Known about the structure:
380 residues, alpha/beta, Rossmann fold, Archaeosine Trna-guanine Transglycosylase, Chain: A, domain 4, 3 domains, eight-stranded mixed β-sheet, 12 helices, globular, binds S-adenosyl-L-homocysteine
Amino acid sequence: MRYDDQLLSSLERIYGRQLQDFLRAVGEPGPRYYIRVNTLKIQPGELLDKLRSRGLEVRADEALEEALYFPVEGPRNIPVSDKVVVADKRAAESVMLGANLYAPGVVRADRDVKRGSLVTVVDEAGRPVGYGEAVMDWDEMERARRGLAVRVVEPLYRVPQTRELPEYREGLFYEQSLPAMLTTKVLGPRPGETIVDMCAAPGGKATHAAQLTGNKARILAFDHSKRKVEMLKMEASRLGARIEVRRADSRYLDLDYPGLRADRVILDPPCTSLGVRPKLWDRKTYRDVINSAAYQRQFIRVAARILKPGGLLVYSTCTVTLEENEENIAFAESLGLRLVEPPVRLGSPGVEHPWRDAMIRFHPHMHPGPGYFIALLVKP
Ligand code: SAH
């Protein structure tokens, strides 16, 4: 990972001598691939049976009843071909987990690659991520705007391509990490309440809240990206989750929706994503962390304003820095919010904060999922 020295030393404050273990772990997918059962449509045991009858190896999580997971196979030995296709970062990260390579993800291909050639797919640094059969000639895969370029048969890791299952189309599950599921569980939304998700797209947590309240809460899901708002609407309809989707810049929700009062708020703002895995590489500076933390504080300020007295805020990120996590919680406390002991706990405590036991961290080198942070606060 290409992190500047200042960022690395700030990470060292958290991980100490385990920093290298952390950096290695985010380069790998982790041993479990999780989905959340959509209990609006099916019970966990029933979906488990359906998926097993398709020949998939799938298990129930030990702690969260709506969580199922597929054990991740790998790293596997992949055959080497002298014909190489280079994929961009995003495409290479998907191929690494068993997805096919589509033309838009192709950076370049060797001149002797023809339809039917057996090829090795590599990332831009030349690392092999999969092996398969070319479905286009080299020039077509470099130029085409769409279409299958390489059918991947031997990926570095293998997870089921869950989006291709009929159960996905039927909206019986949502692909979601365990910490992300835990976030909404920690908030504990109830029927009849007004719940605001300030950064909602693509809708993992908002649709989970709909499910936990049996579609009987008023859920307002905001996001400022037009494209992502469309994705959010599609996800809600696929899952049959009743949520009101609005395009808005949530840093100004209190001004744009002056009457808005929430019983519970979900704040899962953009972050530096240092906990996300697997990533083939990443480039970030300490400056990015500072900017990100400042942006997140703008949302925290608004969350504190729109909460009813006694209302709860769950704050989560998929990153691991103190600046975006514990230090932002200290900022929320300075606005008058108070930390609350989460009603469900998994993972590890927070770091360096006086009441770190009330916070939840997931460490990629210790837990199966991404690096993650969760804290619950109340407005007195
Ligand atoms: N909670 C979501 C993931 C959120 S990712 C889930 O569980 O599925 C962060 C989101 O914040 C992105 O979709 C991004 O578009 C949105 N975002 C970024 N800046 C924003 C702003 N100023 N106002 C509202 N949404 C914003």
